[in-house]
Amino acid sequence: MGFPSPAADYVEQRLSLDMICNVTANTLIIETCDGYAIVDTSIPVRQGRTALISFCGQDRFAVLRGRAFITDDGEAIEGEALSEVVVRGVVTHTIIAHRGGNAPF
């Protein structure tokens, strides 16, 4: 039996991606060619922020600059074409996969 250990007062929770990236019901985790993107669907897009947009039936990452979205391949979506853009959310975190050397994973 005994008594409870005083060390139990100093035990911390294990870190998880849910805690670090604030994953909630409003969060999408999108697999990219480099790793993953954490997208929050409840945040409005603002100047200079990267967003996940749907345009012409494709999901793309784009940065809002002025009155245009600049996609990751450098294409500018502006003017009347903006009426076809649906903003799905704002990228809050990116996780880059490191698969170099003889890693076992």
Summarize the structure.
The chain is mainly beta and 105 residues long.
Major β-sheet annotation: 7 strands, antiparallel
Rg estimate, integer Å: 20 Å
Broad CATH class:
Mainly Beta
Give the mean pLDDT. 88
Number of extended strands: 7
The number of domains: 1
User: CATH H level: which superfamily?
Assistant: Umud Fragment, subunit A
Our count of helices gives 1
CATH architecture: Ribbon
Please report the distance between the alpha carbons of the first and last residues: 43 Å
Q: Globular, elongated, flat, extended or rod-shaped: what is the shape?
A: elongated
- Portion in helices: under 10%
Could you walk me through the main structural features you see in this protein, from its secondary elements to its overall organization?
This protein is mainly β and 105 residues long. The chain has a single domain, classed as Ribbon (Umud Fragment, subunit A), CATH 2.10.109.10. The protein has 1 helix and 7 strands; from the N terminus they run αβββββββ. The chain has a 7-stranded antiparallel β-sheet with strand order 1-2-7-3-4-5-6, with no helix packed on it. It comes from Izhakiella australiensis.
